[in-house]
Amino acid sequence: MALAKIVYASMTGNTEEIADIVAKKLEELGHTVDVDECTTVDAADFEDADICIVATYTYGDGELPDEIVDFYEDLADLDLSGKIFGVVGSGDTFYDYFCKSVDEFETQFTFTGATKGADSVKVDLSAEDEDIENLEAFAEKVSEALA
């Protein structure tokens, strides 16, 4: 089956958990899945994957997490034509720009030529039962987009 690469940034563990939920579902669907923290990989690693997923949190008033900024900037320079992408993440509805980093990564992926496989999933803080269902449905849609 296909190779799915999930790159995440997580301060509290919430976004890592989100990435793991998506990874588990993609594995159940028969895909090979690599999950890596954003500081341990390069954006160019997406060139070897069929499915490219970013899981990020939003910091403060809508900022990208410091640790994923370089990855974000490098992503725009890639040609990911023929690949499927998706973005998931966590945030806090207390802030005005809830999960803004998710939206920014979705926009950044459009510059790569990759095809959006599913609508983004935004989680308020940590994944509850409904969020888990949404994340699993996201994984199914991304998988189906390969066909």
From TrEMBL:
Keywords: Electron transport, Flavoprotein, FMN, Transport. Residues 4-143 form the Flavodoxin-like domain. It comes from the Bacteria. The keyword Disulfide bond does not apply. Pfam families: Flavodoxin_1. This is Flavodoxin. The keyword Manganese does not apply. Its cofactor is FMN. GO terms for molecular function: electron transfer activity; FMN binding; oxidoreductase activity, acting on NAD(P)H. It comes from Streptococcus vestibularis. Signal peptide: none annotated. Belongs to the flavodoxin family. InterPro entries: Flav_short (IPR010087), Flavdoxin-like (IPR001094), Flavodoxin (IPR050619), Flavodoxin/NO_synth (IPR008254), Flavodoxin_CS (IPR001226), Flavoprotein-like_sf (IPR029039).
